[in-house]
Amino acid sequence: MSGQDELEKLESEALAAIGAAADMRALDAVRVKYLGKKGLVSAQMKGLGALPPEERKERGRLLNELRGALEQAIAERRAALEKQALEEKLAKERVDVTLPARPEEEGAVHPVSHVWEEVVEIFADLGFSVAEGPHIETDWYNFEALNIPPEHPARQEHDTFYFHEKADGTRKLLRTHTSPVQIHTMEAQQPPIRIIAPGRTFRCDSDQTHTPMFHQVEALVIDRDTHMGHLKWTLEEFCKAFFETENVKMRFRASHFPFTEPSMEVDINCSWEGGQVKVGEGDDWLEILGSGMVHPNVLRAGGLDPDEWQGFAFGIGLDRLAMLKYGIPDLRAFFESDIRWLRHYGFSALQIPTLSGGLSA
């Protein structure tokens, strides 16, 4: 048998084996048998050195053509097997969408979503409207217009997610609070203003009580005669409604925020029993939010005259409110997509918060 006949026989056997391969494992075994380091074609290649120059050149050409033909055949067979496997999988996993849903597949409303609706319901009853703003902000709206100085730690890389610098030297960022909505609102409408701004915010932080993405609700009231008494009454009414108790006691502590003056931290009374916090009873105090009268510089940044208008603002973490009200110990669990956790803490889609029926009923 001549060398060419031998190679033709080898090619015929290999192509037959490739065509007969029923799955990927069998196909890979054929590839190793013929094209592997110790395969039949590789063995023929190693024998080229013992041939005369002219015969070596011709046989090398034939072997390269054989290798190319087998590689192409293997690739085509692999594609055919993948297509066949996909079709079998689709046929096996096909879902009849006309079937009724099974009880174990019922969804649940996330606690943060439910608390979001609770907060909106309370403030809507108090005459507030909902305002929204972009997640990607400029330095002006997120810091400068809110009277936050250039040296403030919040403006550093370790606290804020910045985008790449543009040609003009500016950089956009993921908003670190929902406070920029205050400026957008003041620019878009004339007082009186009474809005809340719930939404996602982003900071470089992650532990048991902090996550890189979290939820806040900001409140802003601007009018000619708005004063600190209005702020205290609003917060008291909110806490009573949200925690569903008439016994909430509040403590206002002097603090400092660049965007309010004067500024106050707000605590509510509580007790700790068995690792759980109970609001409205006991002698302990729990900080829940920051608040204050809007700084004149913020009013000017929003296009308003501080000699004519004044107002108050406060911000609350929606995730923290959910943890306090529903006894959730770890903030990170909110974002782990664990269906068991959601079934435990989640709410039925029909549990729509209402003040008349009870927010969490």
Q: How many helices does DSSP assign?
A: 11
What's the multimeric state? single chain
Look at the structure and give the CATH class of the largest domain. Answer: Alpha Beta
- Helical proportion? 25-40%
Major sheet summary line: 8 strands, mixed
Please give a handful of descriptors for the protein shown.
single chain; 361 residues; alpha+beta; BirA Bifunctional Protein, domain 2; 2 domains; 11 helices; 40% helix; 20% strand
Fold topology:
Layout: H1 3-20, H2 24-35, H3 40-46, H4 53-93, H5 111-125, E1 129-130, E2 136-137, H6 139-142, E3 173-174, H7 180-188, E4 193-202, E5 213-223, H8 228-242, E6 250-257, E7 260-273, E8 276-279, E9 284-294, H9 296-301, E10 310-317, H10 318-326, H11 339-345
Parallel strand pairs: 1-4
Antiparallel strand pairs: 2-3, 4-5, 5-10, 6-7, 7-8, 7-9, 9-10
Helix pairs in contact: 1-2, 1-4, 2-4, 5-10
